[in-house]
Prior knowledge:
Blueprint: H1 2-10, H2 12-15, H3 30-34, H4 37-67, H5 70-92, H6 96-102, H7 109-148, H8 156-191, H9 194-221, H10 227-249, H11 254-264
Helix pairs in contact: 4-5, 4-8, 5-7, 5-9, 5-10, 7-10, 7-11, 8-9, 9-10
Amino acid sequence: xxxxxxxxxxxxxxxxxxxxxxxxxxxxxxxxxxxxxxxxxxxxxxxxxxxxxxxxxxxxxxxxxxxxxxxxxxxxxxxxxxxxxxxxxxxxxxxxxxxxxxxxxxxxxxxxxxxxxxxxxxxxxxxxxxxxxxxxxxxxxxxxxxxxxxxxxxxxxxxxxxxxxxxxxxxxxxxxxxxxxxxxxxxxxxxxxxxxxxxxxxxxxxxxxxxxxxxxxxxxxxxxxxxxxxxxxxxxxxxxxxxxxxxxxxxxxxxxxxxxxxxxxxxxx
Length: 269
C-alpha cells in the first residue's frame, strides 16, 4: 500500500517519462492525447478484455450458481470487476467524437475532469466495499459446503460439472489475463498513467484465481470434492485484498487528484 502511494505521488516519473517521441506529449491537452495512436491501441485492448471477461463472467456464474461451486462464482465476480475496469478505461480514453456527443459543452476541461474523477472515485470505492463484502460471503458459503455438503449420487453430477468447467476455463484464463497484465503495464508506462498500471492488478488477480481453480479442478476430477470449497476460501482472501487495495488507492481529495492529473498531463477519465 505504501508503495502504491509512493507511485501515485511520483506519477509519470515512476511509470516512465512521456517525453519520448512515440509517446503522447504531456503538453497536449487531454483530448488531443486521447487521439494519440497509443491511446487508440489501448482502447482496442480494453474492448478485447471486456469481451473476454464478459464471456468468462457468464460461463462461470451460470455454472457456479447452478452447481453450488463457490470458486466458479468467485471467478465470475472477478471477471465482472474486470469488465467494469475496462469500461471505465474506455470512457476515460474516449475519442473526441464521443465527447462531442455526450459531454456537456458548457463545462471547462477542469470542471469536466472534476466531475469524472468524482464518478470514478465513487465507483471504485463502492466496488472495493462490494468485493470485501463478497469475500465474507464466500467464506460463509465455503465453510457451509465443507460442513453440510452431501457428497453422494445426488450431488455427484454437480461436482463433476463444476470440476469440468473449472478445468476448461482455468488455463485459458491464466494465459489471457497474464498477457492482459503485461499489456496494461506497458500502456500504463507509455501513457504515463498510474491508474492504467493499477488496472493491471485486476488482470493479475484473475490470472491467479484461474490458476487456483485449475489446480483445484485436478483434485476435484479425482474425486476430492473438498478442493472446490477450499479454493473458494483462497478466493475470499484474494478478493478481500483486492477490495482493500481498490478502496485504499481511490481514497483521495478529488480537488488534489484533479490538480495532479492536470499538472502531470495524465488526465484520462
